[in-house]
Automatic annotation (TrEMBL):
This is LolT-1. Transmembrane segments: none annotated. Keywords: Pyridoxal phosphate. The keyword Membrane does not apply. It comes from the Eukaryota.
Length: 430
């Protein structure tokens, strides 16, 4: 286990007292990554830094020393501190933010708390994350069968075109009398890894009387300058374990005070649940503080993750490095592949870049195909996420503070080998 310069133990948690580190391969000592593995897929599951893992272990030891004391008394101020730190980062009040297991759980909590009626409409995008899209379908499938309405957006495109498509779609699907409309909007799409103009779409929702549910799974820790007081979505959910460096799994669920009456019950339902007929006001936070025994370490050590990021130089510094590397790395990969980047101007790119793979366009886009690509790339000790979109195969590469341009170069070589093998097998199968 490496040592961390000038680190001190403070209240059982790690604090970092050294100058800002240089980004690149020198940062690998702060992560548990296999040194022979090229990881350009932080966006899927996150990558916990060693200091945060150590903080989790230290907290776990404290919990196990007296589980009753911790779970009955000590956890609450630590949880409140972590919620405050996240609230400060995203421009919210502490009691508008709670933790849930992941973004899918957060979006499900919101959508399943609406009192659906026949004639209500749930808008989703063609690129909505799979489990969320399936949630919308599930809600449509069960009584009272709200309408599921899909907005067709394909990439490459522009923010201006997305805004126009969204406007036209909601105008073409007006609310029926006394019925509601709810829009599920990605802030950053999972695949392709591109930003949506979510703040502008929230404004349109307000003008149209539509509830906005922002699936911001990739935002916190990647999208700098989030201020929910200003953008004012109706709901916003983001994973802290993807880009914020927290231990998986942990997500922030933001519900402004004006909408907390909508969230009648946590999932699972908490002992703090109060029937609406007896409730004097929302008890949003209380329900999520305790809705069954869980390991609170991932939630509480969000504080340590934020301290680690501050030690690295803060959100703007580290995200500038990752963004610049993603832009440069995408161009390098496209040259190696002889293909293109999805977003050549970089307008929709933060720290994830999408590059077309040199694979046959008629290669079946099946689970078996994608699983096969995964296995072949894993065998070469590298990974970036492959996916099929708009008639072509792509890979989404996540740039992180431990990466350098040489990682993209080496990944490109390994992908070329995989693609050549896949193409050979595919041609022989015809």
């Amino acid at each position: 286990m490496p040592t961390y310069p000038n680190m001190q133990l403070k209240n059982g948690l790690k604090a970092y007292k050294e100058d800002k580190p240089e980004f690149g391969h020198g940062m690998l000592k702060y992560y548990a990554l296999d040194p022979s593995y090229i990881n350009l897929n932080n966006g899927s599951y996150g990558t916990t830094p060693r200091p945060v893992t150590e903080a989790v272990h230290a907290l776990s030891e404290r919990i196990e020393a007296n589980p009753d004391l911790f779970h009955r008394i000590e956890f609450k101020p630590l949880l409140d501190e972590a919620r405050q730190r996240v609230a400060d980062l995203i421009g919210a009040k502490r009691d508008e933010v709670v933790f849930v297991a992941n973004a899918s759980m957060g979006v499900n909590t919101v959508l399943r708390n609406f009192e659906w009626e026949e004639g209500d409409i749930i808008f989703e995008f063609r690129t909505t994350y799979g489990s969320i899209s399936r949630t919308v379908q599930y809600l449509h499938d069960r009584p009272p069968h709200p309408t599921a309405s899909t907005i067709n957006v394909l990439f490459p495109t522009t923010h201006a075109e997305i805004i126009e498509v969204f406007k036209k779609h909601v105008k073409a699907n007006p609310a029926l009398p006394n019925k509601k409309r709810v829009a599920v909007i990605d802030s950053i799409v999972s695949n392709p890894g591109v930003t949506l103009p979510w703040k502008e779409l929230v404004k349109i929702c307000k003008e149209e009387g539509i509830f906005s549910v922002i699936d911001a799974a990739h935002s916190i820790g990647q999208e700098v300058g989030v201020n929910l007081k200003e953008s004012d979505p109706d709901f916003w959910i983001s994973n802290c374990h993807k880009w914020l460096s927290a231990k998986r799994s942990c997500a922030a669920l933001y519900v402004p005070e004006r909408n907390q009456h909508i969230i009648k019950a946590s999932i699972p339902t908490s002992h703090a649940y109060i029937s609406p007929k007896d409730r004097k006001g929302p008890n949003f936070v209380e329900q999520f503080d305790w809705n069954g025994t869980i390991d609170y370490a991932s939630y509480i050590t969000v504080t340590d993750a934020l301290e680690f990021r501050e030690w690295m130089g803060g959100e703007e510094r580290l995200n500038k490095y990752c963004h610049d590397l993603a832009i440069q790395g995408g161009q390098v990969l496209a040259e190696i592949f002889g293909t293109r980047v999805m977003d050549p101007n970089g307008d929709l790119t933060l720290n994830m870049v999408n590059v077309e793979l040199p694979l046959p366009k008629d290669l079946p886009a099946t689970v078996a195909t994608i699983s096969g690509l995964h296995r072949r790339l894993f065998a070469k000790k590298a990974f970036s996420a492959p996916f099929f979109h708009n008639g072509a195969w792509w890979t989404r590469c996540s740039a992180q503070v431990w990466n350098e341009i040489s990682d993209f170069e080496e990944l490109g070589k390994r992908w070329l080998e995989v693609c050549a093998d896949v193409k050979k097998d595919f041609d022989q199968s015809k």
